[in-house]
Design brief:
Blueprint: E1 2-11, E2 14-24, E3 29-33, H1 40-48, E4 55-60, E5 66-68, H2 81-86, H3 90-103, H4 110-125, H5 131-141, H6 158-170, E6 176-180, H7 188-199, E7 204-208, H8 212-218, E8 221-226, E9 229-234, H9 237-252, H10 258-276, H11 282-286, E10 320-328, E11 334-343, E12 348-352, H12 356-366, E13 374-379, E14 385-388, H13 402-407, H14 415-424, H15 441-455, E15 459-463, H16 471-482, E16 487-491, H17 495-501, E17 504-509, E18 512-516, H18 520-525, H19 527-543
Helix pairs in contact: 3-4, 9-10, 16-17
Length: 544
């Protein structure tokens, strides 16, 4: 068990945590949530001992081992991949090194023999004989090929390093597992593998993630950071969000009787429990919702942006036609080729590719910021576009305040009008006088969304729209796109966002296109499509 007692932390006048008391028990997975800057990653660093709290203490059950997902991707550059994973169990690794040192001695004595016997016993007790095969299986499950297991970490690309460090954290069945954004840079297949792994994990997991689908799949509890406190709630993220929204609506309805409110909450819990029992979520596996105390459901103090897209005109019959579009990178690598499709009314299309640069290039071509090597495309005369690029750095180089920055994209230059769009994205008071140059990544994306709303477009093109956003902004954005009735082309690593928005899936590959009118989950689960994808990507590898 892991417990936190009277934990406090302040930076100057700002209080992150104030007298926090919590217990984390084995068999449960706790998703730590909170607004940007609330202290989610800081809390994990306190638990791991990386930083000290101002007051209070962290207590771990005697003999329990804590494992942490490393954020320094260069820490193990001088070690082979397999050894890096083995080092995740430090005690086992130390025994292995001590054994090797003893057996390498030229003057091996009787005393050394006795010491070696003791180490061999420890090694066997820790299942050391299976350690390398276990580490290798973890790596393979996370998408690291067997031929890479003996390579140095320094020889791997950044995305592969992330997988190795994740395998290191998972290795050896630690009693306590701390994961800060574990799905970053993982593809959907690897995330699914990790979800299954954690759903079956019998010890304590504490995770920070902006991936709502991942939190829903693995979490039995939510640890909500708000007002300097951390409150534990039973259930996954969706249950916390929907129940807190329901509680907020009930609080606003002063005329509703207490008995009616309680009945409404009880019906909500029963409905959620029934839905969860049909899935593979850890929530249903633990059946914790049956033990939920209704009075524990509280409204959230979170502020959600007001994201509303209002097209100035409806789309006509001719929307977008793409014919045999192809593009090669500056290095001569084919990004996509022979891409042809037609967009129909109401299409909300997720664009997929194993190389994100291919999608970015595709969007840049469609928006007129780049040119294709061959092929053509034509937008309908009624189409007006709003584009959210993945790299927005070029938009924030001037010294204006946010009002003047946004005003340049508005036909109505009235300050009150422009302020209204900034206010919808939670920029209020003196915040609107900030210089665009000092904005955080999340603030820049919120400004770009304000710019999109101002455009009153009927076609939205979005390249990783949820990057840098907190859960509140992601949820608001997601809800806005669910209600969007015009056309959209987008890509996102947020599984929930894609699944709930897209009604069509198009994958662009170096050897052609896969185009399916179905949901994202249906696309991923279809065996024939999986085989086709492998064939289309392997075709270009074979011809290189």
């Amino acid at each position: 068990m892991l417990s936190v007692s009277n934990l406090s932390l302040r930076y100057g006048k700002r209080t992150l945590f104030d007298e926090v008391n919590l217990k984390f028990t084995p068999g449960n997975c706790y998703g730590v949530i909170g607004a940007n800057g609330a202290g989610k990653s800081t809390f994990l660093k306190i638990l791991s001992g990386e930083i000290e709290s101002l007051t209070g203490q962290v207590s771990i059950a005697p003999g329990a081992r804590m494992s942490v997902l490393k954020q320094n991707h260069f820490e193990f550059d001088s070690f082979p991949v397999l050894q890096t994973v083995l080092m995740g169990n430090r005690k086992l690794w130390d025994v292995m090194k001590a054994k090797d040192t003893l057996y390498a001695k030229a003057d091996f004595s009787d005393e050394d023999g006795q010491k070696a016997a003791e180490l061999e016993t420890l090694f066997a007790d820790m299942d050391g004989w299976n350690a390398e095969s276990d580490a290798s299986n973890l790596l393979s499950g996370l998408g690291v090929k067997e031929e890479d297991h003996s390579r140095l970490m320094s020889d791997l690309e950044g995305k592969q390093k992330v997988r190795v460090l994740l395998a290191q954290a998972l290795f050896g069945n630690p009693e306590i597992l701390l994961l800060d954004e574990p799905t970053n840079d993982l593809d959907v297949e690897t995330i699914s593998w990790l979800e299954d792994f954690l759903a079956d994990f019998q010890n304590t997991v504490i995770v920070v993630s902006h991936d709502r689908h991942f939190l829903d799949a693995v979490c039995t509890h939510v640890a909500d950071i708000d007002f300097g406190k951390i409150t534990l709630y039973t259930g996954n993220y969706t249950f916390w969000y929907e129940s807190s929204q329901l509680a907020s609506r009930q609080r606003a309805d002063q005329n509703k009787k207490i008995e009616e409110k309680r009945k409404e909450l009880q019906e909500f819990v029963e409905r959620f429990s029934a839905n969860a029992s049909k899935s593979r979520q850890a929530t249903s596996r633990k059946k914790l919702l049956d033990k939920l105390v209704i009075d524990n459901i509280q409204p959230s103090a979170r502020k959600y942006p007001g994201i509303i897209f209002r097209p100035e005109r409806e789309c006509g019959d001719q929307l977008l036609n793409v014919e045999k579009l192809s593009k090669t990178s500056e290095e001569g690598v084919p990004l996509f080729s022979d891409i042809s499709f037609t967009v129909n009314k109401g299409d909300k299309i997720v664009i997929l590719s194993r190389e994100h640069s291919a999608i970015t290039s595709f969007f840049e071509i469609l928006t007129g910021n780049d040119t294709a090597d061959s092929g053509c495309f034509a937008w309908g005369s009624t189409i007006t576009k709003a584009y959210l690029p993945n790299d927005n750095s070029g938009y924030f180089k001037n010294e204006d305040n946010l009002i003047d920055w946004l005003r340049q994209y508005s036909t109505d230059k009235d300050e009150t009008y422009v302020r209204g769009f900034l206010g919808k994205m939670l920029f209020s008071g003196e915040e609107v006088m900030k210089s665009p140059k000092v904005l955080s990544g999340g603030e820049k994306v919120r400004c770009m969304i304000s710019r999109m709303m101002l455009a009153n477009a009927n076609c939205l093109i979005m390249d990783e729209p949820t990057n840098h956003l907190d859960l509140e902004s992601i949820t608001a954005f997601n809800n806005a796109l669910k209600d969007w009735k015009q056309i959209a082309l987008f890509t996102s690593h947020d599984h929930e966002f894609v699944q709930t928005v897209a009604n069509r899936v198009i994958e662009i590959t170096p050897s052609g296109v896969i185009d399916k009118w179905m949901s994202y989950d249906e696309f991923l689960k279809d065996k024939a499509i999986r085989e086709l994808r492998e064939k289309m990507y392997s075709a270009i590898v074979t011809t290189k």
